[in-house]
Amino acid sequence: xxxxxxxxxxxxxxxxxxxxxxxxxxxxxxxxxxxxxxxxxxxxxxxxxxxxxxxxxxxxxxxxxxxxxxxxxxxxxxxxxxxxxxxxxxxxxxxxxxxxxxxxxxxxxxxxxxxxxxxxxxxxxxxxxxxxxxxxxxxxxxxxxxxxxxxxxx
Length: 154
Ligand SMILES: [Fe+2]
Prior knowledge:
single chain; 154 residues; alpha+beta; Jelly Rolls; two-stranded antiparallel ribbon; 10 strands; binds fe (ii) ion
């Protein structure tokens, strides 16, 4: 994991991410053993579903999928990801609405809390394989900030 403030380029530590409400941890990706710590997180935090999702450049819907997450959005459920392979970039708003850029790779566990604006895109590697945890799959629809602000302005 590497994290920086987008406005000044300064590094952000795992502790700072935690104090901004973003849970970050490094975990073992060994195929035989990676599930146990995730199941513990599920039990402790009330997640009910675990699945896997992959994105790579030769998928038929690759561009549409990338487009879906690159605009600033939130979800009404937490976004919980554990990276098994590949890498990706989460840009997440801080408590003061600054952008925190978090590059995640194999072994990184990240939890973006519900209702926190963020955006996601792949690195030049154009490939990621993640485990996802959900409390409620229906909370997993992106709600775009531009749409929320357009509604609020009416
Ligand atoms: Fe998201």
